[in-house]
Structure formats: structure tokens, C-alpha cells
Write a structure and sequence with these properties.
The protein has 281 residues and is an alpha/beta fold. It contains eleven helices and eleven strands. The chain is 43% helix and 18% strand.
Amino acid sequence: MRNMSEQVLIVEDVSVEGSNPKGGLISIWTLNRPSKLNALNSQSHAAIKDQCSRVESDDNIRCVVIRGAPPPDSEEGKRPKPPSFAAGADISEFSGKNSDDVRPFFEDNAWEAVWNLSKPTIAMVDGFALGGGTELALSCDIRIASDRSNFGQPEINLGLIPGGGGTQRLCRLIGYGNTMEVVLSGSMVSADLALQMGIVNRIVPAEDLESETMNLAQEISRKSPYTTKVAKRAVRGALDLPFSEGILMERSEFVALFDTEDKEIGVQAFIDRSDPKWVGK
Ligand code: COA
């Protein structure tokens, strides 16, 4: 277990039970600005990008889970803060800025760093995931949300549009009409509607969110780390390639797996009715 006490991002690596190769870890990243509903400021972006580099270079890390810190204890006489994954980019960093000021930041941002990870990523959403918060969840491969969550792209209300990939990733995930509704209205999307639209994979009661998410993360992390990367790359190819080229790409990836040790290990384990002891190559 490891704890990097970056203030805006708490990182904890937990063991994968029964991983092969041994030593598998799930890296859990907690966005940690709860008094600002975990809004993503420039430090949050820097910390997330740093962690993306670390995860890519550490073979033990099999999967990433991103979550928001729970609300702080409410101060005397003040309204308690609501639970939040991330209530967007930090709006206070936008005021008075022009395009030259913001361009470098948006050209090298945390949403793309997460999206470009070769390993599986899960957003565990409890509460508000708005603007850049929805976009961070969309940059993950899988979204699991509590039934009290709200999604949305409210940038239109600020005279802006989504800038962390929201228009593009939402369109591919939930289609043109739903995306137009979310982006043009700027309205919040309840967990139920998010499920219906396909923004989230599933919704669960808030008290079950962590166990459901971690069970899935554990399950994914017990597969061959090599094959998992190939699977992610193949599915991702469907977003970029024309259909017939995608079919060829998948076939080529599938056939190449017949030269790996893990294919032989997996097939033999099925025949022997034993658990596969992956070697990751
Ligand atoms: N950027 C910066 N600060 C934010 C923020 C954001 N995106 N979202 C919330 N906060 C801050 C608030 O300013 C407030 O700070 P304060 O207590 O120091 O005044 C604190 O978080 C709590 O938010 P508050 O608005 O008081 O909570 P609420 O329960 O009344 O409303 C929301 C919750 C999510 C509806 C509301 O905070 C909101 O609309 N946030 C902005 C969402 C957004 O437009 N995101 C897209 C940005 S591009």
C-alpha cells in the first residue's frame, strides 16, 4: 500500500487478491478538494497527469479507480456540503483569462492523460459529476454511480462549451440526440436518467458503491495484464476506425495472442479446470 499525500489527490494502491503475476495493485485516486466539491484546478490536473505517468510505468498496477473525497464535516451554522465526484473545472481559474492564457492548459490536460492510459479505469461517482467532472468520468472506461449522483455539462450556462472532450466522448457513448440535450440544456442529469441514456454502466445505493466498484476492479485486475491491454486497445479501436478496418484490426490482435504464453496458460487452465496463473506475456 502506498500513500502519496498530494493534497489535491490522495493516492492509495491496494492489493489485488489472487493476481497473477503476483503483486498486482489497484490504484485508487481520490480527488481531494471536498470544500469545493472536488472541483478540478490546475494542481488537480498536474497531480492526475503525474499519476498517469506512474501507472503506465508500473507493471504491478492493473487498474485505476477514480473517486471524489466525501464532504467535510459541516461547520457550525453552515449548510453541509453535498457529496461530489467533481463539480467541474475550477471556475475561479477562468475569470479574466483569454484564449492564449487557457490554451496551453487545455492542450495538455488530465482528461486526455486518463483517456490515454493503456490500463482499465473506473470512475466511482457519488454525488455531483458536472462539467469537467462528467468529462473525467467519461475519460474512464467504466462508470459506476450511486443513486444520488447527478451528471451534466453546464458549461453553456457560463458562456462556454465542454472543453475536456465532453462533446466527443458523450456523442460516442450516448448518441447525438442525447448529447445535444445534455450540452445545449446544461441541465443536470439524474442517476436514473444517466443510466437510461447510457452515461453510466450501473447505479447502486450509495452504501454499496465502494464494494461494487472494488469487486469489479478486483475482477478486472485478476485477468492477464497483457491480454487486458490488448482488449482495451481493440475496443478503443472501434471509436476511431471504420467498421471494416476495425474488424481487421480485431482479427489481427486476436491472432497475435496465439503467440503469447498467457493464451496457452488460459486454455490449459480451462481444460484442467484450474485457475490460470498468468505470466503477463
Ligand atoms: N469551481 C469552483 N468552485 C466550485 C465549483 C466549481 N466548478 N463547484 C462548486 N464550487 C464551490 C462553491 O463555490 C462553494 O465554495 P464556497 O463554499 O467557498 O462558497 C462550494 O464549492 C460548495 O458549492 P455550492 O455552490 O455552495 O454548493 P450547492 O450545494 O449550493 O450547489 C452545485 C452545488 C454543484 C449545484 C454548484 O456548486 C454548482 O453549480 N457548481 C458549478 C458546476 C459547474 O458549472 N461546473 C462546470 C464548470 S466548467
